[in-house]
Amino acid sequence: MSNWLGAGLALAALILGATLLGWQGALFATTGIIFWLLLQMSRLMRLMKQAGAAPMGSVANAVMLASRLHAGMKLAELISLAGSLGVKQGDETFVWRDAGGDAVEVLLRKGRLVEWRLLRTGEAAGSS
Protein backbone atom coordinates (compact mmCIF):
# COMPACT_ATOMS: atom_id res chain seq x y z
CA MET A 1 0.00 0.00 0.00
CA SER A 2 1.34 3.42 -0.88
CA ASN A 3 1.93 6.00 1.82
CA TRP A 4 -0.64 8.36 0.33
CA LEU A 5 -3.32 5.68 0.21
CA GLY A 6 -2.67 4.67 3.82
CA ALA A 7 -2.77 8.27 5.01
CA GLY A 8 -5.94 8.89 3.02
CA LEU A 9 -7.66 5.85 4.52
CA ALA A 10 -6.64 6.89 8.03
CA LEU A 11 -7.95 10.41 7.47
CA ALA A 12 -11.20 9.05 6.02
CA ALA A 13 -11.65 6.78 9.05
CA LEU A 14 -11.11 9.72 11.40
CA ILE A 15 -13.56 11.96 9.54
CA LEU A 16 -16.18 9.23 9.20
CA GLY A 17 -15.85 8.23 12.85
CA ALA A 18 -16.10 11.82 14.07
CA THR A 19 -19.05 12.53 11.78
CA LEU A 20 -21.07 9.48 12.75
CA LEU A 21 -20.22 9.05 16.43
CA GLY A 22 -18.60 12.31 17.53
CA TRP A 23 -15.48 12.28 19.66
CA GLN A 24 -16.00 8.59 20.53
CA GLY A 25 -15.89 7.72 16.82
CA ALA A 26 -12.71 9.72 16.33
CA LEU A 27 -11.18 7.97 19.32
CA PHE A 28 -12.24 4.58 17.94
CA ALA A 29 -10.69 5.37 14.54
CA THR A 30 -7.49 6.55 16.22
CA THR A 31 -7.33 3.29 18.18
CA GLY A 32 -7.70 1.32 14.95
CA ILE A 33 -4.95 3.33 13.26
CA ILE A 34 -2.56 2.82 16.18
CA PHE A 35 -3.33 -0.90 16.24
CA TRP A 36 -2.53 -1.17 12.52
CA LEU A 37 0.75 0.70 13.01
CA LEU A 38 1.70 -1.62 15.89
CA LEU A 39 1.00 -4.66 13.70
CA GLN A 40 3.29 -3.28 10.99
CA MET A 41 6.02 -2.57 13.53
CA SER A 42 5.68 -6.05 15.01
CA ARG A 43 6.00 -7.63 11.57
CA LEU A 44 9.13 -5.61 10.82
CA MET A 45 10.72 -6.45 14.18
CA ARG A 46 10.04 -10.17 13.67
CA LEU A 47 11.67 -9.98 10.22
CA MET A 48 14.74 -8.20 11.60
CA LYS A 49 15.04 -10.73 14.44
CA GLN A 50 15.03 -13.63 11.97
CA ALA A 51 17.47 -11.90 9.61
CA GLY A 52 19.76 -10.92 12.48
CA ALA A 53 20.02 -14.53 13.66
CA ALA A 54 21.40 -15.69 10.29
CA PRO A 55 25.00 -15.07 9.17
CA MET A 56 25.24 -11.74 7.37
CA GLY A 57 25.23 -11.99 3.58
CA SER A 58 24.40 -15.70 3.46
CA VAL A 59 21.58 -17.29 1.53
CA ALA A 60 20.61 -20.96 1.12
CA ASN A 61 20.64 -20.84 -2.71
CA ALA A 62 21.70 -17.78 -4.68
CA VAL A 63 20.16 -19.05 -7.93
CA MET A 64 16.75 -19.50 -6.30
CA LEU A 65 16.97 -16.05 -4.72
CA ALA A 66 17.84 -14.46 -8.07
CA SER A 67 14.92 -16.22 -9.76
CA ARG A 68 12.43 -14.85 -7.22
CA LEU A 69 13.54 -11.20 -7.44
CA HIS A 70 11.63 -8.58 -9.40
CA ALA A 71 12.05 -4.86 -9.96
CA GLY A 72 10.29 -2.62 -7.45
CA MET A 73 10.50 -5.16 -4.63
CA LYS A 74 10.74 -3.54 -1.18
CA LEU A 75 13.78 -4.06 1.04
CA ALA A 76 11.71 -5.92 3.65
CA GLU A 77 10.51 -8.39 1.00
CA LEU A 78 14.09 -8.92 -0.17
CA ILE A 79 15.35 -9.58 3.35
CA SER A 80 12.45 -11.98 3.92
CA LEU A 81 13.35 -13.95 0.77
CA ALA A 82 17.07 -14.03 1.55
CA GLY A 83 16.63 -14.83 5.24
CA SER A 84 19.54 -12.59 6.22
CA LEU A 85 20.89 -9.09 5.83
CA GLY A 86 23.11 -8.46 2.79
CA VAL A 87 26.75 -7.43 2.88
CA LYS A 88 27.12 -3.83 1.74
CA GLN A 89 29.37 -3.45 -1.31
CA GLY A 90 28.67 0.17 -2.30
CA ASP A 91 26.31 2.97 -1.40
CA GLU A 92 23.24 1.11 -2.63
CA THR A 93 24.68 -2.31 -3.55
CA PHE A 94 24.34 -5.43 -1.41
CA VAL A 95 25.50 -9.04 -1.93
CA TRP A 96 24.25 -12.41 -0.68
CA ARG A 97 26.39 -15.57 -1.15
CA ASP A 98 25.53 -19.24 -0.81
CA ALA A 99 27.74 -22.13 0.36
CA GLY A 100 28.69 -23.00 -3.23
CA GLY A 101 30.19 -19.56 -3.85
CA ASP A 102 27.41 -18.23 -6.08
CA ALA A 103 26.27 -14.71 -5.25
CA VAL A 104 23.43 -12.32 -5.93
CA GLU A 105 24.31 -8.64 -6.20
CA VAL A 106 21.40 -6.21 -5.88
CA LEU A 107 21.10 -2.47 -6.42
CA LEU A 108 18.55 -0.64 -4.26
CA ARG A 109 17.30 2.90 -4.70
CA LYS A 110 15.03 4.46 -2.08
CA GLY A 111 14.53 1.04 -0.47
CA ARG A 112 13.36 -0.62 -3.69
CA LEU A 113 15.09 -3.16 -5.89
CA VAL A 114 16.22 -1.61 -9.17
CA GLU A 115 18.45 -4.28 -10.66
CA TRP A 116 20.22 -7.48 -9.70
CA ARG A 117 22.62 -10.00 -11.19
CA LEU A 118 23.60 -13.53 -10.41
CA LEU A 119 27.34 -14.11 -10.08
CA ARG A 120 28.21 -17.76 -10.61
CA THR A 121 31.36 -19.13 -8.94
CA GLY A 122 33.49 -19.00 -12.11
CA GLU A 123 32.24 -15.55 -13.10
CA ALA A 124 32.74 -14.06 -9.62
CA ALA A 125 36.35 -15.27 -9.51
CA GLY A 126 37.04 -14.01 -13.04
CA SER A 127 35.72 -10.49 -12.41
CA SER A 128 37.80 -9.84 -9.26
Automatic annotation (TrEMBL):
Organism: Pelomonas nitida
Record's protein name: Glycerate kinase
Transmembrane segments: 6-39
Protein origin, superkingdom: Bacteria
Keywords, comma-separated and alphabetical: Membrane, Transmembrane, Transmembrane helix
